[in-house]
Amino acid sequence: MKNREIEISVKERRKEVLRNLRRFGGRLYNQMEKGIFPRIRMPSRSTENIFYSPELRQYILGDKTVRRSARNIRHIRPFTQLVWAGYFASELTKNRKTSTLRDVYYSAQAYDMSFKDQAESNSIVTDLETVMGFSREDFKVFPEERSAIFGDLTIEYTVPGYEGKQLNLMSHPDGVMIGPALTSSEFAQTRADKVIAIEKGGLFTRFIEERVHKKFNALLVLTAGQAPRATRHFIHRLNKELDLPVFIFTDGDPWGMHIAMVIISGSANAAHLRELTTPDAKWSGVWATDIVDYKLPSDPLTEVDIKRLHELEKDPRYEGELWRRETQKFLSIKKKAEQEAFSRYGLTYIVDEYLPAKLEETD
Amino acid sequence: MVTFEEISPADFFYRNRDIAGFTNPARAIFSSIRELVENALDASDLSNIPPEIYIRLSQEDAEETQGELGVGVYRLRVMDNGSGIPARHIPSAFGQVLFGSKYKLKQARGTFGLGGTMAVLYGQITTHKPVEVKSSTGTSKIYEYKLMIDIQRNRPLILDRKIRRNKEQWRGTIVEFSLEGDYFRAVSKILEYLKQTALVTPYADIKFVDPKGRLYLFTRATKKMPPPPKETLPHPYGVDVETIQRLIRVTECQNMVGFMQKHFHRVGGGISLSFLEFAGFIKSEDPKRLKHEDVVRLVHMMKKSKKFFDDVNVEKVGRLIKTAHSRNMLEFMETHFPKVDKNVILRLLLAAGFIKTKDPRKLRSDEVVRLVRMMKRFNGFLPPDASCLSPLGEELLETGILKELRPEFIAVSQRKPSTYSGHPFIVETAIAYGGNIPKKDDILIYRFANRIPLLYDEASDVSVRVIKSMNWRRYKVTPDMPIAILVHVCSTKVPYKTVGKEFIADRPEVNGEILNGIREVARELQKFLTKREYVEKERRRLTVFSKYLPKIARFSTNLAGKKEEPNIELLLRSVKKIEEQGD
Ligand SMILES: Nc1ncnc2c1ncn2[C@@H]1O[C@H](COP(=O)(O)OP(=O)(O)OP(=O)(O)O)[C@@H](O)[C@H]1O
Ligand SMILES: [Mg+2]
Asked: Does any ligand 1 atom lie closer than 6 A to the CB of residue B83?
């Protein structure tokens, strides 16, 4: 896969996507013109071809490739589905329409090439990502789950009907949904100097109420659990294009810890994609150490929690010092705590005491 | 107090009509049709004219509910163009149980002298009406009888007898009588029976008019009939003491060698002699008692077979006899001419009168028992030949199956003749696929014995058990396939388990032949299925390519921003080529 320039504007990126799709179609077209069965080669996504790259600080695909040929009776159906998916993506992109994975699944039926199930259609979309080196959001296929952002950032829409219109992301007190229109917009202006990502909606709202964005001059991002890919890409852009440091706050348990990790280093499932990670982002809490230091109300770790921790111990992404230390600490104290646990010290304690301390500690 | 009485055979079968297949009104109507049809077919085999059979069942007094005819009185009439029955035998043929013309050793549908008469007897006990029989053997006269059966005495009662002029030289038999039956419950079995009969008798025209006036036609597909069987003598392996007792009472032979030759199947002079020697039925002269002229005669005979005895003369043989220790001519000859075959010696001694066998008419009963026992032990008898059998043959079998089942594929096989306990038999098998064969959860099995369809008690039948024991997956057969297997066993003595002729008992020899026969045709089916599977797979392949390639062309044309789609004809043709090569 070609290593493209990271810094391309949204419009540029759209053109690039269309160019690639056209090249893809052209290659198949020429093969058929020459009387040979169309075929493609793409990186293998099988587990033995997924490696962790310490330089890129994310998972990447190795050198193994797979060949798909329309000559092969077992390939021809997925092959056709892939070409169709490319066609569908190019239609969406050209017409500036968006859709979801569910849409893709249903749309195929109109072309007399139904997918067996949602899983089959999802995997074809992933194939398209792998072949093209772009993520599905670039093809205008968006997830159902939505996360949100709040803070002093002015964006400029590129979606039809809103082209050129600007919006300040403080304009709505619930935050603004990170959907297709937002992810495809250009950044116009900001006064913030950091990004704070928060796992849970309750705390996100509390932070807005407590004017954390003002007090800390920050953009607040709600990940709503495991951050969707569009949100991960959006955080990546905030970090890369606006040069803002990113701090992540999650629950103090292995699952919260991993939410932070996926924003930072990505997942194995997306090893074929770039620009979904933010390697310089920081996990600021709640740490196992914090549970002890702040004497937080806690629950004992369950069997499943402990099993998960042992898995994470072996994960190459957890090689860093902080990660090792906290994993060990969880295992030794055998406790976990939610972000809400700070309420024991009053409603504003987390903003007034904990947050400044942690931002400083992890900066 | 115990009282004793005697009953006649007719009375016995009257009391035990179940064992002959007359269990209830439905079964009785089925069995009656079947027995009369089988008699008719036997009669045309005899005359060697392709049978034309007309069956009419009409209702006399049957209850009708919801358009269906149930239990009641029916009248059955069956007409054939067979041999006809000589006038003097007509009363007994239909008025006496265990009377018949098929006790001979040759293949026929009838065996027991029971079937037709049982039908008449059943009609009589349920309606108390006489049977009417018309028959002519093609002479200038047609005989008409009205008969009833004196069940207690097993004798026909002739109520009326007419003789008519046979102007048209008609030949055949018409049997007509009334009986209680249940048509509604029997109809499916009757039709199945007729269909299978038509299948195994493709040279027969069968018409059936049912009580509702519907005509069922089973038209012949050929006029070719299988060669008729020849009557045969009993094979020594198959006889018992009773058979010998009967034979010695009637034989005209005065010595055992001739007796064996005359009354048994495939026993010639040589085999007869060596068997009798083996069995100890030969008396030999004492060499010491030979007179001079006896020696001269012996040497004379020996010279006649110079091949075996060169360089012999009276002096030499005379000297040998004087010094001999043996008191037995056979032993003497064997000692001094060790190179000569025993059979040659036996023949020579017999011809010269130096050995003798008993007069069979004077055999004592212990000797008869010994004779039978030795027959079973002697392994020099030739196996029975199959001229007494009349299998259908592969060609007719195929014709019959094609006619009734119209299958997509068919394989037939006729096994070589074989024997069980001295009875010759031939197994014919066939397997058919598709066409009118229904898709059931299981293989459809058609069983036949001496060209009779066997419809009841399938589970107990040897063929069914053999088929069930086979691993059909080896032949690519799955239970959902429309497959029919046909097994036809022909024998002078089919090992039926009942007089109702419903299923065949297990005999290792018969089992083995059935198994091998089915395997043979199953292998053919396997070849067919393999090929079909291949063609099917290729067709599916082509369908897949012709479905998807145009789509790939269309989408990539659009993606590439071209106007015209690429030509994929070449690609499609190359896929097709793969198919043709494999075909
Ligand atoms: N339609 C017919 N044409 C010529 N002969 C017949 C006909 N029907 C019966 N017979 C004669 O009547 C005899 C008795 O028939 P019946 O059916 O009672 O016994 P079978 O056929 O000999 O033996 P089975 O009991 O096995 O049927 C037969 O052997 C045959 O000689
Ligand atoms: Mg009969």
From this structure: yes
Contact list in A for residue B561 (CB cut-off 8 A) is 22, 25-26
Q: B555 — contact with chain A (CB < 8 Å)?
A: yes
Strands A99-100 and A141-142: parallel
* Short-list B153, B185, B126, B166, CA closest to B11: B153
Whether residue B551 and residue A37 make contact (CB cut-off 8 A), yes or no, is no
Q: How far apart are CA B347 and CA A228, in angstroms?
A: 109
> Cβ contacts (< 8 Å) between A77 and chain B: which residues?
544, 548
Task: Domain A148-362: give its CATH architecture.
Answer: 3-Layer(aba) Sandwich (3.40)
Helix/strand/coil for B309: coil
Closest ligand relative to B20 C-alpha = 1
What CATH number is given for B9-218 in this structure? 3.30.565.10
Give me the CATH code for the B394-528 domain, please.
Answer: 3.30.230.10
pLDDT of residue A185 exceeding 60: yes
Catalytic-labelled residue, pool A52, A87, A106, A345: A106
Q: Inter-chain contact A35–B559, Cβ cutoff 8 Å? A: no
Check whether A294 has a pLDDT greater than 70. yes
Q: Could you give the 3-state DSSP secondary structure of residue A265? A: helix
pLDDT tens per residue, range A49-84: 999 888 888 899 999 999 999 999 899 999 999 999
The residue extents of the domains of chain B are: 9-218, 236-377, 394-528, 529-582
Whole-angstrom Cα distance, residue B259 to residue B367?
14
CA of B22 to the centre of ligand 2 (A): 14
The reply to whether ipTM tops 0.85 is no
Beta bridge partners of B176: B77, B132
Write out chain A residues lying below 8 Å of B549, CB-based.
70, 76
Beta-sheet strands, E only, within chain A:
39-43, 50-53, 58-61, 65-69, 99-100, 141-142, 148-150, 153-156, 166-168, 176-177, 186-190, 194-198, 218-222, 246-249, 282-285, 299-300, 335-336
Q: Which CATH architecture has domain A2-142?
A: Orthogonal Bundle (1.10)
The whole-angstrom distance between A87's CA and the closest CA on chain B is 6
Closest by CA to B54, choosing from B21, B79, B82, is: B79
Is the CB of residue B551 less than 8 Å away from at least one CB of chain A? Answer: yes
Is A354 one of the annotated active-site residues of the chain?
no
pLDDT at A11 over 90: no
pLDDT, tens digit (0-9, with 9 covering 90-100), for B328-362? 888 888 888 888 888 889 988 988 888 999 899 99
Counting ligands in written order, the one closest to the CA of B101 is 1
Closest-approach residue (CA) in chain B for A31: B566
Helix axes B256-263, B241-250, angle to 10 degrees: 110
Q: Considering chain A, tell me which residue range(s) the CATH 3.40.1360.10 domain(s) occupy.
A: 148-362
Of the pLDDT bands very low, low, confident and very high (cuts 50, 70, 90), residue B226 is: very high
Q: Does B570 touch chain A (CB under 8 A)?
A: yes
pLDDT at residue B295 in the model: 86
Q: Is B114 in the pocket of ligand 1 (CB under 6 A)?
A: yes
pLDDT for residue B577: 58
What digits encode the pLDDT tens for the residues A195-252?
999 999 888 988 998 899 999 999 999 998 899 999 999 999 999 999 999 999 999 9
Judged against a pLDDT cut of 50, whether residue B403 lies above it is answered with yes
**Contact B556/A28, CB-based, under 8 Å?**
yes
A21 interaction partners in chain B (CB closer than 8 Å): 559
pTM reported for the whole predicted model = 0.68
**Candidates A25, A73, A77; nearest CB to B556:** A25
> What span, in angstroms and rounded, lies between the C-alpha atoms of B516 and A361?
89
Answer yes or no: is the C-beta of B101 below 6 A from any ligand 1 atom. Answer: yes
Banded pLDDT at A8 (limits 50, 70, 90) = low
